[in-house]
Write a structure and sequence with these properties.
This protein is about 65% helix and about 0% strand. The strands form two sheets. It has a two-stranded parallel sheet with strand order 1-2. Strands 3-4 form a two-stranded antiparallel sheet. With about 700 residues, the chain is mainly alpha-helical.
Amino acid sequence: MQPADKAEAKPAKKRKTATKTAAAKTAKTGGKRPGRPKKAAAKVSDDDSDSDDGILDPESLMEGDDDSSGEDLPDEEIDLEAVERSAKKSSREAPSEEVTKGYKALVKLGRQRGWISVEDINDLLPESAVSTEEQVSDISEQIAILGIQVFEQAPDSDDIILASVTSDSRDDIDEDDAAEMLSPEESAGLSRDPLRAYLRGVGTHKLLTREEEIEVAKQIESYTQKLVSVLAGFPFVMDSLLKIRDQLQSGELTIDNVADGFNEPEGTEEVAEGDSSNGDIGAAGMTTEQLSDMKDRVVSIITECEDHYKLVKEYFPDPEQHAAYSRERRAVVKGLSQIRFSGKIVSSLSDQVTEHVSGVNKLLSRMRALAVDDCGIPIDKFLKDFDHRATDPDWFPSIVRQGVSYSKRVERQEAVLMAMQEGLRNEEKASCITIPEQRELAKSVKIAQSNLSAAKSKMIEANLRLVISIAKSYVNRGLAMTDLIQEGNLGLMKAVDKFEYRRGYKFSTYATWWVKQSVTRAVADYGATIRVPVHMTESYNKLRRIKQRYLQTHDGKAPSDSELAKLGDMPLSKVHLLMNAMRGVESIDAPIGDDDDATKLDFVRGEDDADPQRRYMETAMGDEIVRSLDDLTVREASVIRLRYGIGSNRDHTLEEVGKALGLTRERVRQIESAALRKLRSNAAKARLKDYKDFEE
């Protein structure tokens, strides 16, 4: 906060008291609450001109307040707490000059530093604007939209470095408009309808020209290459690449899933749109012979790097071989940097390094907590010595010998601290790189990932309109518009990862098919109550297109199923299956006609509406079967009932009957045979002969 602001600001307690006093005075005199400036109100009205946007007119709310506050109330009937809540509500709906001034100060400070803290928000804004956590959260979200990072506390140097790398400040918005965006009324209007808020956000991103698309694509490629170079600085990534080489040679992996080409010393120029005859066209545009040549070269490069990697492991951690060790490490990095790895491989290597660094950081954090918090080593001294003595076995014994104030506590924890150092030395040995170098490379990985993410985000944000235009074509198919946009955005992100600007096509031309595929797959997977396989959905869409063309060429006459089967080159049975599967789901309780007296269920034929004579014969035959079972023993009757499902929903196997009666399968079979012989006697035949020709 600037000194002038401090001089003007009131203490929190006094400010709250002043608010109560002013609110009470306003209630007594029947005066109006402070209103939103007319210019701002007009702006909201213009932006929110849709009749169904669900945003209330602030001026109409103010008129209602005027009517309700027009009467003078006796002093003894005033509820100060209610008046205070009303005053706070009024300040949220229509920010005062003090609040607007605070918003401008926040934007100015954030643009100067690139970040602000929650403490800054509380200091620069009056208490009425930040009295609840929800208000602070809303303001933080709006500030983030402006490209200013918000931290709970003042960030450390690493966070500030990353913030400066990833920040995409919206400098094109002046301070007045930025302050307008921070107002509660604006943020409330956006939050009521997520889709509307999203569409408004999409409108703030400008489209890219073809030249700008190529420039961003080159940035993505450059940052990806820088990330690969940094990852290659960790020698242990060679273990994963050697496995990939073996899978390439065995045929488990195809080369287009591993690499997209090579990084030549001289950059290749982009080609004209649609012309891929020259230049590095990428794996997707290569012939089988070219892919085979690329595979051989990738295998050769990785094999060459393997020789250098073996020497790296041999020289580490011998101090006398440090120069040779560094030379071989640089050779590995240089060799791997020749290959333009696919996004999937880069992501896999990045995850491997991140997991390793995370494990090392956990061990370092435990050592720092024990040494600083428990043993009392000053944090400045610990950090100073840590950079060059993290794995030095004489570090903590030397502190014990110094006889300083914390030496006794270090001596008590010496065994644990040295065990942690041993763990760090094991990590160094396994990764063939020292802890300080790992920390420096980890920072470089973070910065490279942030740069790459920012470049991809720029390409994605510039093409969000494309997703919306495609998603509109798939409404009313079982998914909400927000879900369609989300699925389309996933396809857009895949397109950014796989875009090959060297082939000469515009990004929108390439991305359209990825977005369409993602949206159609989502509709097929989630749009129906009963999921229909994607391949059946695609086959049905093919039939639908054939039917549409037939209608256009035959004066509106619909084709028969047999004609569709012939035109679609598929069996008639498959056409019937597709038509039945894609009929959709309808509620049997849906009303028929304008009245609610009848539903579709009333017109569905019941399954029990059989011939009365047939139903009588079924009942009589069942009674005769039960009477025939009375001639058997209890065990025989139980076996027959279970085996043939008499009186139950299904029949049972020999094993199931045996478990139920505590018998073996063979014994059950013997009892069943004996029971059937009895039922085939003359007495049983006489009772059941009338039902011999009855068909169930």
